Amino acid sequence: MSDIRPPVGLAPVQLLRLNPRLSAASVPDSAIAGCGPGTFVWIADPVQGPKGAGRLVARRLAVVVLARSDGGARIRPNGAPFGDVIVRGQESLRTGDGLVEAHWLPDGDVELPAAARAAQAPRYRCPACGMTFSAAEAARNGFNDPMDGARLVREGAP
Hints:
Blueprint: E1 10-16, E2 25-28, E3 32-33, E4 40-46, E5 56-69, E6 72-77, E7 84-88, E8 98-101, E9 103-104, E10 110-111, H1 114-119, E11 123-125, E12 132-134, H2 135-140, E13 153-154
Parallel strand pairs: 1-8
Antiparallel strand pairs: 1-7, 2-6, 3-4, 4-5, 4-7, 5-6, 5-8, 9-10, 11-12, 11-13
């Protein structure tokens, strides 16, 4: 397993993109949770509003299983439209959890998009003024704040 982890507060998930206008869709068994009237799938909903651009949150969508086949099922949403169905990484989700779309490699490692990998890069903070710097910026200035000369501290370090 790699040591790559998603940014704090975001769960890595793999999505099956569905047209929200579909009345029924085929999904892998891994996407379906619960049974009977409590059957549901997890959906990745885009966050609304100007601060939500590009962000996704988890939502449960009640579904009816119409038919089962080898490794999958045909389902229909029960009351709300489809969204992008989460087919991997949903095991410990709760409604409203933040998500990052990821890809699972054959060896089981999770590959995150470049933006998520960048979000986990080390950051350095000036204890005097509170400004933060990327690792590259900190190194360029000898790990000192260029304005007040204070020694930068790696965030999250003891």
